[in-house]
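Assemble and predict.
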Amino acid sequence: MAELANIPWNLILPILGLQLILMIVALIDLIRNQRTNGPFIMWIFIILLLNLVGPILYFIFGRRQA
Amino acid sequence: MKGFSVLLHKEWREQVRNFKLLWIPLVFIIFGIIEPVTNHFLPQIMKSVGNMPDGMDFPWPEFAPKEILVSLMGQYQSIGLLIIVLAFMGAISSERKNGTATLLYVRPISYASYFLSKWTMINILVLASVWVGFLAGWYYTAQLFGSIPAADVFAFLAAYSLWIIFVVSIVLALSAWLPTGGVAALGLFLTLIMAILDSVIGAYWTVTPWKISTYASYILMGSMDYPTFWKAAGLTVFLIILLVLFGSYMSGRNAAKTTV
């Protein structure tokens, strides 16, 4: 736990927060839209598991522009 | 310019609805923050995950604050350009493919205002993202490394913006001309690959749009030879105008290829 306290959270938190916002926006859009290029479940895992890159990939390739 | 403001409004709504207005600035801000933070903690990161032998003393380079912004620009030159090209490759071509264009082309709009409305809106979005990203990076650099004079940063941003406008013009002109796949291939070649090629083999050719980003970093460092920069900038503006004209012409000519 001492190592956790040593991490400069005030520097890291904004990055984590922004990544979380990006992830949530991608998930909301995915669930509202339902239609994707490729399997729906696959995109949920991509967004959740690939930090930062996942939501970008979803917005560029997964989202079906209607 | 019939219906330009209406079309601009349509473009704005499209960027809001497909979340580009949100995610593109967010991604640029995240990169803008990550760059100074990782550079600042590089010695500690290497100590914990770098698998360095005990007792080895690696002299870490001391980064000047301006170098951090230049390396952030390097990130934008690879990942940023990739995102810009891929996010907007379908701006016109996929409208033709999925039939949205049918709804537009049956109305008496001019193709120039159609193309320009897209060009304006996408430029505003991308430039705002790049600026916000650099401002975030600038703030973190000031906190972690030391301050950079505002005049230098804004001169740098102005020069870099010209390059970004050039990139957006290339993507949109290609999108008016080719199907989406072709736009991605040729667009990435003309921006990412050409910028690398130009820096590798074009060392003696100073007046090219692909050197604008390098010149922007020279401006930041204060070592720019301004006559060369203005020549390159003039050529870039000229090429941007040509690309816009080509794009407007092509979106008219390809109107018949629209899926009904």
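The interface with chain A takes residues 18-20, 22-23, 26-27, 29-30, 33-34, 37, 40, 83, 86-87, 90, 94, 98, 140, 144 of chain B (CB under 8 Å).
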